[in-house]
Structure formats: C-alpha cells, structure tokens
C-alpha cells in the first residue's frame, strides 16, 4: 500500500468539497504527508495525538474529528478516586456528580461494581492513566451533558435491560472516548442517540460482544439528523455487528480494524451518511462488510436507507464490500466540510499490528499535574 503517511490536511474549512483533496485510485490510496503529529519509531506510523501523555491536561481539546472541542475538566481541580466503592466520598460516582469542572484521576486499581448507571455531569475528565480500573455491573450515562472525556478504562460485564457500557443520550455534545476496552454488556457497548453529537471514539478495543455501537435510536427520532460522530483507530475484534449501525447521523470512520464479525461490519439505515476511509475489513465466516437497511423516518411518507462512501478501505480474507453505487456524490458528506485535519495511514499490515496491540486500556503512567487537589 506504500509508505506515505501523515496528518491529512484539508483546505477551506467549513466549505463544501465534493471530492477529497488527496489523489486517490482504487488500488493504492495516496495520502499526503502534511504536518506530522508524532511518529511511532518502532512501527514508522504517524499516529494521532501521541503527545497527550506528556502532561496530564495535554489531553484536553486534542481529539480528532467531530469531538475535537471536548475539554473535559480542563479548568477544574483534580479529584482523586481513593476507593473502589460504588458511592460515597472518594468514589468515582461522588466525583462525577459534582457540578463544577473536575479532572478525575485514580489512586487505586481494581473493579468498581456499579449498582446503577453512573451519571457523568458536564466538564468532567475520567482519566484512568496510571491505574487499571474496570467498571462492571452497569455503565456510564452521559445525559444532557457536554465536554466529557473518558480515557483508559475497562468496561466489562454490564447486566440488565438497556444496560450499555457507555450510554450517551439525550442532547449531549463534545464527548471524547479514548483508549477504553469494552466487552460483554447485555445491550450495547456504546449507544449514541437522541440528538447527542460532536463525539469522537478513538483507539478503543471492542470484543466478545453482539451489538457494539449504535448511532441513532430509531426512525421516529428525526432530531437525530443533527448527530455527528468520528470513530478512528479502533479495533473491533470478533464483535458480531454494529461497527457501527447508523440512523440519520453523519459518521466518519478511518483507520479502524474490523475482523471476524458475525452478521456485518457497518450498517447504514435511514438517511445516514457514512464516510469510510482507509479502514481494514477482514471477514471470517460472514463475508459482507457493508449492510443497508430501509426504514421510514416518522416525518416521511416512504422508507429509505443510508449512504456509504468507501475511500481507500482494504477488504481482505474474501471480504465482500457490498457497496451500493452512489448516484449523487453530495449524498455523503466530506469530513473536510467540518474539520481541517485528521491523522490517517494507508491500511497496511503495519497499521493492523498497531491496532491489535495498542488499542483499549494501556499500561501507561499518569502524567504529573500541578493543579490544586479536591478530595
């Protein structure tokens, strides 16, 4: 696939670009080398936001894509989680319900058994760097909140009706989910619905699960036309479906590795627009990568499906793309209409190895911080 790599840069931010500003042919995507983010010296890859682990709050505002403005608890003090208890002073739940901005870090490792959804209020960073924290029993709920960053956590074993690992609804925005491992919940791993928008999911590992990521609740929620989500550098490892499934929303997928799905990889339903760029799709028994479902929006008289544009994707192990021809190029958005830069690599074996080993929870130290402490 070649060895050119770098930070994709588009000109004319906010303007319509009917074609991406790099040269492309069907066999070899050629991606221009622009301002480099940071090179991985072991693999030779140019990777997104690698500098964010240099200081604690360097994470804020560094997401790529639609969630790029998320600052979390940047302007608040540190809150130290000192107990694995479900609630009470020093617990994660206690910090998440505070109304002011807070940057939450952990002084303990282990499993937090949640008895109910843990509601996260606005302007919070839940930063698991430096410890190994697993949330089980229930998940996180981001309800009518903004500017939330969730980094370096594990989610496993959520039980009960409508229990998702991370549930984002309604009307939440500016969310970044980064380097999390998610598996084995009774419903979805991440659900984004009911007009929640401007969200990025990056470098997450999804495994041992059925319904992975849902974007858009159902055809009656026509307000979900506002939703915009970016998913990049994620590893979907044998999960059955929904990588993601999309209704109404605009979704940019790039540099993800999806393998051995059970039904399909990506599903476009009513009025959705999916821009799939330089991803790796590696089929197991089920060969079809892209699926289309027709549904009728509540305010329309006839049903319709969504649109998928595939640029530079790699289909291996007998994968059948299953793409429906696009008759009108403007029916799928171009990411450069909304943001100027993002870091993208050709879909090589080198990228695949990186995503296999460097997604999900990471054993990394917590960077230092000099802000005041709230206990």
TrEMBL record:
<keyword id="KW-0106">Calcium</keyword>
<protein>
    <recommendedName>
        <fullName>Pectate lyase</fullName>
        <ecNumber>4.2.2.2</ecNumber>
    </recommendedName>
</protein>
<keyword id="KW-0479">Metal-binding</keyword>
<comment type="pathway">
    <text>Glycan metabolism; pectin degradation; 2-dehydro-3-deoxy-D-gluconate from pectin: step 2/5.</text>
</comment>
<keyword id="KW-0732">Signal</keyword>
<dbReference type="InterPro" id="IPR002022">
    <property type="entry name" value="Pec_lyase"/>
</dbReference>
<dbReference type="InterPro" id="IPR018082">
    <property type="entry name" value="AmbAllergen"/>
</dbReference>
<dbReference type="InterPro" id="IPR012334">
    <property type="entry name" value="Pectin_lyas_fold"/>
</dbReference>
<comment type="similarity">
    <text>Belongs to the polysaccharide lyase 1 family.</text>
</comment>
<keyword id="KW-0456">Lyase</keyword>
<dbReference type="InterPro" id="IPR011050">
    <property type="entry name" value="Pectin_lyase_fold/virulence"/>
</dbReference>
<feature type="compositionally biased region" description="Basic residues">
    <location>
        <begin position="1"/>
        <end position="20"/>
    </location>
</feature>
<dbReference type="Pfam" id="PF00544">
    <property type="entry name" value="Pectate_lyase_4"/>
</dbReference>
<dbReference type="InterPro" id="IPR045032">
    <property type="entry name" value="PEL"/>
</dbReference>
<feature type="region of interest" description="Disordered">
    <location>
        <begin position="1"/>
        <end position="35"/>
    </location>
</feature>
<feature type="domain" description="Pectate lyase">
    <location>
        <begin position="89"/>
        <end position="287"/>
    </location>
</feature>
<dbReference type="GO" id="GO:0046872">
    <property type="term" value="F:metal ion binding"/>
</dbReference>
<dbReference type="GO" id="GO:0030570">
    <property type="term" value="F:pectate lyase activity"/>
</dbReference>
């Amino acid at each position: 696939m070649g060895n050119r790599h770098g930070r994709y840069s588009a000109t004319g931010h906010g303007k319509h670009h009917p074609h991406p500003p790099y040269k492309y042919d069907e066999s070899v995507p050629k991606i221009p080398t622009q301002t480099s983010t940071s090179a991985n010296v072991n693999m030779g890859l140019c990777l997104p936001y690698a500098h964010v682990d240099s200081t604690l709050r360097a994470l804020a505002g560094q997401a790529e894509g639609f969630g790029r403005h998320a600052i979390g608890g940047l302007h608040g003090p540190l809150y130290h989680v000192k107990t694995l208890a479900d609630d009470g002073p020093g617990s994660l739940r206690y910090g998440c319900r505070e109304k002011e901005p807070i940057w939450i870090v952990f002084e303990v490792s282990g499993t937090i058994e949640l008895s109910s959804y843990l509601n996260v209020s606005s302007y919070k960073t839940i930063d698991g760097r430096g410890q190994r924290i697993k949330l089980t029993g229930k998940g996180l709920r981001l309800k009518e909140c903004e500017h939330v960053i969730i980094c370096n956590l594990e989610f496993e074993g959520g039980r009960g009706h409508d229990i998702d690992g991370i549930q984002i609804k309604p009307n939440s925005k500016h969310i970044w989910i980064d380097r999390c491992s998610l598996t084995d919940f009774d419903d979805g791993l991440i659900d984004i619905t009911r007009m929640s928008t401007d969200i990025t999911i990056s470098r997450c590992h999804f495994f041992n699960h059925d319904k992975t990521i849902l974007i858009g609740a159902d055809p009656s929620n026509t307000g979900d036309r506002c939703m915009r989500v970016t998913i990049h550098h994620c590893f979907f490892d044998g999960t059955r479906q929904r990588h993601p499934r999309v209704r109404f929303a605009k979704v940019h997928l790039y540099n993800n590795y999806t393998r051995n799905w059970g039904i399909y990889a990506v599903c476009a339903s009513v009025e959705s627009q999916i821009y799939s760029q330089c991803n790796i799709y590696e089929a197991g028994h089920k060969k079809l990568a892209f699926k289309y479902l027709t549904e009728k929006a509540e305010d329309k008289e006839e049903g319709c499906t969504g649109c998928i544009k595939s640029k530079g994707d790699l289909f291996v192990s007998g994968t059948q793309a299953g793409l429906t021809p696009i008759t009108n190029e403007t029916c799928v958005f171009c990411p450069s209409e909304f943001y100027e830069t993002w870091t993208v690599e050709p879909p090589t074996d080198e990228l695949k190895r990186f995503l296999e080993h460097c997604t999900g929870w990471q054993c990394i130290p917590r960077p230092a911080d000099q802000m005041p402490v709230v206990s």
